[in-house]
Design brief:
Blueprint lengths: L2 H7 L14 H12 L10 E6 L2 H20 L3 H7 L7 H4 L2 E6 L17 H21 L1 E6 L4 H8 L6 E10 L8 H4 L20 H6 L3
Antiparallel strand pairs: 1-2, 2-4, 3-4
Helix pairs in contact: 1-6, 2-6
Length: about 220
């Protein structure tokens, strides 16, 4: 699979996990791909916590379910109805969680234009590691789902993550029956994808209204 095919086929997986645990050799290949990502100052400020204990997966899944309910209650009725059928995680179904963390102590923070320190380049480095893992997983026929409904302090306590280390992502990782042709959020009508021509500016930044509409 070419990198362009992997980019086009990559999906945020929820429903398609087979229930099998990812092969250990495949898992190590995915982690090597993530660890090969570019990083600010070649610091590699990430760590990967691999979670496969069913009890831990169940505890985190229960926490995420509660956070999902809280979010659903906060929505207007029409959006709540749209959100209702959307599955937000595959924590137990995938059988493996990879928690990616950021350690700011590894990064001598570059300075912003106003002279203040910035950790953003370190966090962006972690995001590049996540993307590497995700594309490698797609090429391997392995699904990845990024869990977004949880509290960092709960996750840190659950996995004994030090106070000065920031959890960035819980990734559900496992073999899949297949990948959707369109993202789940688009499939269920939560939000349509923004077209490329609405995001590309030439020579100068267009105003937002024009950029969102996609007009030239």
């Amino acid at each position: 699979m070419s990198v362009y095919e992997a980019i086009a086929r990559r999906r945020d997986v929820r429903n398609e996990f087979t229930g099998d645990v990812v092969d250990e050799e495949v898992l190590l290949r995915l982690l090597r791909a993530a660890h090969a990502a570019p990083s600010v100052g070649h610091t590699r400020p990430w760590d990967f916590v691999v979670v496969q204990d069913p009890a831990t997966l169940a505890r985190f899944a229960s926490h995420v379910a509660g956070c999902r309910e809280d979010f659903a209650r906060s929505l207007p009725r029409d959006r709540a109805e749209t959100f209702d059928p959307i599955v937000i995680d595959g924590i137990e179904q995938s059988g493996t969680g990879i928690v990616v963390t950021y350690d700011p102590a590894r990064v001598a923070a570059p300075m912003c234009s106003d002279g203040t320190p910035s950790n953003e380049t370190g966090r962006l480095s972690v995001a590049l590691a996540i993307e590497n893992l995700w594309l490698a997983a797609t090429a391997e026929g392995v699904g990845v789902g990024w869990v977004s409904f949880y509290h960092n302090d709960f996750l840190s306590r659950l996995l004994s993550i030090p106070d000065d280390v920031e959890p960035v992502a819980w990734l559900c990782v496992g073999p899949v029956t297949g990948l959707r042709s369109v993202p789940d959020l688009e499939h269920f009508g939560w939000r349509a994808g923004r077209p490329l021509d609405a995001a590309v500016h030439r020579e100068a930044y267009r105003d937002r209204d024009t950029a969102v509409s996609g007009e030239q």
